[in-house]
Amino acid sequence: MIGLGTYAYFWQHSDRAPDQLGLIGAFEDTKAHGVDLFQICDFAPLDTMSDAEVRDAARAARDLGLTIELGTKGIVPEHLTRYLRLAEVFDARLVRGMLYGPDSRPTLAEAETSLRSSMRAFERAGVSLALETYEQIATADLIGVIDRVGSPRLGICLDPANVVARLEHPQTCTERTARLVKNVHVKDFAFARQDDWVGFTYSGTAMGSGLHDYAHLLETVRPRERGINEIVEHWLPWQGDAATTIRTEREWTRITLELLRSTP
Predict the structure, then answer these.
(1) Residues 6+ apart with CB under 8 A from 175
(2) What CATH number is associated with residue 248?
C-alpha cells in the first residue's frame, strides 16, 4: 500500500508555516490525495499529547478510513513499550524504529539485549518493529542485530538514501536488506555543486529526477507482492520563504504519488 508520512509534511507541520498543519489536518490532506495509509514518524507532538488527544487523533484516522503506522527513535524498552501502547490506540501494525534515540546510543550488544526484551510483547500484539537503515549504523551491523534477535516481527525499514552518508551504495543496501524489509521510505536524492564549485550538497529532489533507482528497489524487494507498505517522504531544503517551500513540498508529494501509482 502507498502511504504518506509526517516527513512529507515536514514544512507544513513546522512553526515556519503561516497555517501550521496539525496531525488531523495531515490525515485529512492524505485522504484528499486518495491515500489510505499514514505513518506518524518522529512527530514530536505525539510524545506530549494527552491520552484524550491521542484518542481523538486515532478516532479521526478511523473516521477517515486511514490505516496508521508509527515511527520513533530509540529502542530503550520503556520507550518501545509506550509506542506499543500507542500502536494499540491507533490500531497500528507497524512501528518504524531506529537503534539510536535522542539520549541513547547503544552498542550492538546492548541493542540486541534491548530488542530481545521487547520483541516478545510486539509478537503477542501482532505489531512489527522495522529498524531503519541509516548512516549511523552500518547496514551489515543492523542486519546482524536483527538476525541474532531472530524475531519474526523484527525487520528493516528500508531507506537507501540515508546510507550514502556512510559511503554505502543505495543499491547494495537494498540488495542486502531485501529479505528483512517490512517497510519502505520513498524519496529521491541527488548531489548538487555548491556555489563556486566548492564541494557538494546531498539533498532531496523531486521523485524521478534524482539518483534513486526505484525500479531496482521494486524488483529487488517486491514490496507490492509481499504486502510491504511504501511511505512517501521528502528531503526538501528550505526554499527561501514559506509559500515557496510549502508549495514545493506539496508538488513533490503529487509527483511522487503519480510515479508510484504509474509503476507496476
Answers:
(1) 220
(2) 3.20.20.150
HEC sequence for 235-262: CCCCCCCHHHHHHHHHHHHHHHHHHHHH
Q: Which residues face 262 on adjacent strands? A: none
Q: The dihedral of CA 80, 82, 87, 88: what is its sign? A: positive
Take residue 152 and report the three cell numbers written for it: 519474526
Beta strand pairing call for 188-193 and 200-205: antiparallel
Are 189 and 211 in contact, with CB atoms under 8 Å apart? Answer: yes
Residue type at position 127: V
Element (H, E) at 191: strand 188-193
To which residue does cell 524498552 refer? 77
Segment 236-253, tens digit of pLDDT? 999 999 999 999 999 999
**Local structure of 45: helix, strand or coil:** helix
Helix axes 139-149, 108-125, angle to 10 degrees: 50
The Cα–Cα gap between 120 and 150 comes to: 11
Spatial CB neighbours of 94, under 8 Å, sequence gap ≥ 6:
69, 70, 127, 128, 129, 130, 182, 183, 229
Q: Which residues span the domain enclosing 252?
A: 2-262
Q: What is the mean pLDDT of residues 38-47?
A: 96
Helix H or strand E encompassing 41? strand 37-41
Domain tally, the chain: 1
14-25 pLDDT, tens digit each: 999 999 999 999
Alpha-carbon span 252 to 246, nearest angstrom: 10
- Using CA atoms, how far residue 23 sits from 5, 7, 15, 74, 84, in Å, is 10, 12, 14, 22, 19
Return d(Cα 56, Cα 90) in angstroms, integer: 10
- Quick check: helix, strand or coil at residue 234? coil
